[in-house]
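Dear colleague,

Thank you for sharing your sequence with our group. We've completed the structure prediction you requested, and as agreed, I am returning the results in plain text so they can be pasted directly into your records. Please verify that the sequence below matches your submission; if there's any discrepancy, let me know and we will rerun it promptly.
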Amino acid sequence: RGVKGGDKFEKDLSEASETIVREISVLRLDGNKPAGKPLVLERTLADLGEPRPSPSAPAVAFLRDDVLIVAPLAGGTNRVEVAEKVAGSYDWSPDGKSLVFAVRLTATWEKGTINLAHIQRRAVISATGALTAGDSALLGTGAFAFTPRVRCLPDGRVLFASLPLQLPKPANAVSEARFYLVDPAKGTDAAPAAIATEPGALPADLAAFALSPDGKRIAIAESGSDAVAVVEVATGRLNIVSPKRGGQGRALPAWRGAE
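Please find the predicted structure tokens below.
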């Protein structure tokens, strides 16, 4: 009672034969000492996902349904609701003080159609290390036929994949997904710039990609096949690492080491 969405939870509980309680917890490992009891940061009937600790501050971000939240790793009720209607996967800035994410422009995310979303950046850790709901900056707008995935390069630029968004649509234009980079340091002059890949080189679905730790390459797993390719961020050159072999993979690629 008294919590956001309480009426919905009550209805779900009254109609459900079973109920799933979800938790995000911290388990501290201290050398050779036995692990202690997990510290529960969040326990709820809502969907929880993508707990991602800040690389520099004692804080963790996570999604509760479609609300992006930041909470202290030490526990407690001090937390910040960063944004609502967050779609897909978000990321921390390299300094660990801001979050980059996609906010859908419609009430729900419609599968099988093109959805519009704003790519935003918001400061959530103050200069003193406290949690804060800082200024939010609009970095660009994307058109998505797949779930958005937003990632930060080590130099602070923001990477996302989207269909081209241009109105009116140029004659004979081919609508294929591309990777885009935007530099938040440019402020109001920031604008997404497409990585110059060859036409038709990229899969139609760019939901499953992984940025290398040094920010120089993007690994892509093609949806519905087992093909894996790598794109060089600076040049747009694409190399097939593993060709199609007849499988129906749904894996997200991962990088080993710093490069």
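Summary note from our side: Helices lie at 6-15.

Kind regards,
the structure core
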